[in-house]
Design brief:
By secondary structure, this protein is mainly alpha-helical. It has ten helices and two strands. Helix 6 (167-179) packs antiparallel against helix 7 (181-201) and helix 7 packs antiparallel against helix 8 (205-220). The chain starts with 40 loop residues before the first helix and ends in a 5-residue tail after the last helix.
């Protein structure tokens, strides 16, 4: 019998093991634009100083200014770590004067699930920034350091609001779109308008204007998520679960920063809720 006449392997023959499935990670593609070199160091320092001075001028507290800048950097670094781990890097951090910061990846996520993980990595990792302020409070007994704990927790908690371009819109948006794209759009518009109104009534005019421009751009974008594999239902359930866990952790850290001052959990909850009141 010739080699070409060899029979096909049957179901009981020993077959070579199948190649293991490769993880779903975004990879560089031929023809991609050159890697982003990131923010120029001089402009990064100037932007950070401008943002810090602005926060100090608004809050009247250098502790809050230092905590906000430190918390912002740790928050954005959480995004960077997730982006790099999922093949979207090397990611860069950009500081925007008077507004905050943003982590920028080199390529889009391979799936919406990866996008959810990246969006929640910032608030989750950002809570670690509160540890030095807890340590300073324990070492000195001075309540001013608890202001740093509270403001770091609030930065991460506010970022979880499902309003574009905040992290919450990228974590819950794909879940709502899994139900129907119009559900996502309606929810983003409703929550975005509510957060803008909150900023206007509390004197956060720059924050409100920034969100208004982002919401307008979001609505004009047309196809919201053309790249990457969509969430499946198990991933949607995990996305909601992770969102709830991260939000609860942010709220818990905020309350822990208020309880030594408030004296009880109920009083701390009342003080924390007062921060989110309209027209406070």
């Amino acid at each position: 019998m010739k080699d070409t006449d060899k029979r096909r392997p049957g179901p009981w023959d020993n077959l070579p093991p199948a190649a293991p499935a490769q993880p779903e990670i975004a990879r560089p593609q031929p023809g991609e634009p050159p890697l982003d070199k990131g923010q120029h160091p001089v402009w990064a320092v100037v932007s950070t100083l401008l943002l810090g001075v602005f926060i100090w001028w608004v809050s009247g507290s250098w502790v809050i200014a230092v905590a906000a800048i430190w918390g912002l950097l740790v928050h954005e670094y959480g995004h960077v770590l997730a982006m790099n781990a999922l093949g979207m890097g090397p990611a860069r951090i950009y500081i925007i004067p008077f507004l905050g910061g943003v982590a920028k990846s080199q390529r889009l996520p391979a799936s919406e699930w990866h996008g959810v993980l990246v969006s929640l990595a910032g608030p989750a990792f950002g809570l670690l920034a509160a540890i030095p302020f807890f340590g300073l409070y324990i070492a000195t007994g001075q309540g001013m350091w608890l202001q740093g704990v509270f403001i770091i927790a609030i930065i991460n908690l506010v970022n979880l609001a499902p309003a574009p371009p905040l992290d919450g819109s990228k974590a819950l948006g794909p879940v709502l779109a899994r139900i129907h794209p119009m559900v996502e759009k309606a929810a983003m518009v409703a929550v975005g308008a509510l957060v803008i109104l909150w900023g206007l009534t509390n004197g956060s005019y720059i924050f409100a204007a920034f969100l208004a421009l982002a919401l307008f751009g979001h609505l004009r974008r047309g196809s919201w998520r053309p790249e990457g594999r969509q969430l499946n239902w198990p991933e949607a359930a995990r996305s909601v679960g992770l969102f709830v866990v991260v939000a609860a952790a942010c709220a818990g850290v905020a309350l822990s920063g208020l309880m030594p001052v408030a004296g009880s959990l109920s009083q701390a909850m009342a003080l924390g809720a007062g921060y989110f009141e309209f027209g406070r």
